[in-house]
Fold Putative membrane protein.
Amino acid sequence: MDIVSESSSVSGLSGEKIVSYGLVFFASLVIFFISQVIQFYLGAYELTTMYISFCAGFILFIPLVSLVLHPLLLNKEGKSDTFHFRTLFANIGLVCVVQFLCFLIWMTDAIALYSLYVDQNSFLSKVFDIQTQARGDMTFEFYAFNFVLAWLFSLLSMIVGVLPCLIARLDNRGVVGDFVASFAFAKAHKGLMCMYALIIASSVLLPLLYAKYLFLVVFPSSLVWVFIQLNKKYIQSSVSK
């Protein structure tokens, strides 16, 4: 009887992991599809330089995508807890709204920056009535700024999005306690967090800009790897205290 129940729980757990991987790939596919639609319309309006700002903005959705990775979490005993996807879907609506608002706020700022420093006579400058003195072409600086900003977005997404949810699943110290624990962990592992942020930012920007189909492999693989590493590192740090 015990053997049957154990085997059924293992198979159920494997099923959850398969669904988790499938949802990560599906989310990557949705982001890829949206990116291609955006790139097409930006090209039609001769605003291709702005594409990198949208790519950087996609990183803001990482906390939302990472929710489907929770079936991969290991507890402090090195075991996987039973995960119910209905819990995810119950809260995913609110998270979607918050993430979408953050994305819109960033894109509004990106439009202003593009119109001020890259193309003062662009279609966007006329639509939003942005008037400024000519500053010359600062396309390189615009790209560099977006790369740095993508890295910051990735770091912020992990600290205020991915880690608090991960900690809530493992320790559940309350909303405030989870955020405090997240910031404490990030402070104690600054170098590691910066490296993870660089990996995620690169997995989004580089494929979408230079080898778009690789995004469907590089982004989900990088996100899963970083999530698993954060899980292991948090367990190690909490056990060693």
User: Anything to note?
Assistant: The chain is about 80% helix and 0% strand. The CA atoms of residues 3 and 113 lie 62 Å apart.
